[in-house]
Write a structure and sequence with these properties.
By secondary structure, this protein is an alpha/beta fold. The chain has 11 helices and 10 strands. It is globular, with a radius of gyration of 21 Å.
């Protein structure tokens, strides 16, 4: 399931050409419950999607792009237009993974009808396979409304970043017995409503394990437990592009350091007039 690349001589950019393969489907991912763990990473651009796609089962176009791409203080200001633009780019850059797109704050909470209007627009404009929305019992009716109308939904409970103003921050959830019970009830509610995946974010490990056992759909952990049915991280966190990362993130690279070193080397050569050389300039024969 590889992707070959051809060189576009007009732009000198690599454009993906699909190798013979079929994209994963929502039902196939749903059937991975209890089997080989599901791999999910975030992607916001076509090029990143090209690089991640062969290794992932699901690519999530997260509203975390508000902070990662746009430098916003939270996900709250993210718009439907942003999600559609980046979602379409990720779909164009991928051929293997299921692409799911976050529904931004304010685009689905008012009513199931509003959620359907927003979700149908996302799928039409991007070609993605699914949407993701935050919330538990309060969103169960909406999840059922969407799934009954042919829109696959990923649920998201526990730490829900769109509710940061109500939660008072990004701390782990479920420390009290009452909150733990609420998270479990939320997980069961949206799972029974029909979501095909359920993200458990920033919850006590015991809650994640219990929720994974209690719901029929696969669970995806982020700051949860290795016993979830899969894992997701923000790709830029995993690559080490930021100085500060949450406790639950493992850095698999130091891309920030490598980018800074490359920029420093480039700047030094430019100032010394060592770049460009004959290899990077055009001359008459």
């Amino acid at each position: 399931m590889s992707v070959t690349h051809s060189l576009d001589t007009a732009t000198s950019r690599a454009n993906p050409l699909p190798s013979p393969m079929k994209r994963l489907t929502v039902p196939k991912v749903q059937k991975m419950k209890g089997g080989e763990p599901i791999v999910m990473l975030t992607a916001y651009t076509a090029r990143m999607a090209q690089l991640l796609d062969p290794h992932c089962d699901v690519l999530l176009v997260g509203d975390s792009l508000g902070q990662v791409i746009y430098g916003l203080p939270s996900t709250v200001p993210v718009t439907l237009e942003m999600m559609c633009a980046h979602g379409a780019a990720v779909v164009r850059g991928s051929y293997h993974a299921v692409v799911a797109i976050d529904m931004p704050f304010g685009s689905y909470e008012a009513s199931p009808a509003q959620a359907f209007e927003s979700a149908s627009r996302i799928l039409k404009e991007t070609g993605a396979a699914a949407v993701k929305l935050e919330g538990g019992e309060a969103m169960a009716e909406t999840v059922a409304f969407l799934t009954k109308r042919g829109i696959p939904v990923i649920g998201h409970v526990g730490l829900t970043p769109q509710a940061v103003n109500a939660l008072g921050g990004y701390g782990a959830r479920g420390k009290s017995d009452a909150e733990a019970k609420k998270i479990l009830a939320d997980a069961k509610a949206v799972a029974e409503a029909g979501c095909f995946l359920l993200v458990l974010e920033g919850v006590m490990e015991e809650i994640a394990i219990e929720a994974t056992k209690a719901v029929a759909c696969p669970t995806i952990g982020i700051g949860a437990s290795a016993e979830c049915d899969g894992q997701v991280l923000v790709t830029e966190d995993m690559l080490g592009l930021f100085e500060r990362t949450p406790r639950f993130v493992k850095k698999y690279d130091d891309m920030a350091g490598r980018i800074e070193a490359a920029a420093q080397a480039f700047a030094g050569e430019v100032r010394k007039r060592a770049f460009p050389t004959a290899d990077q300039t055009y001359r008459k024969a």
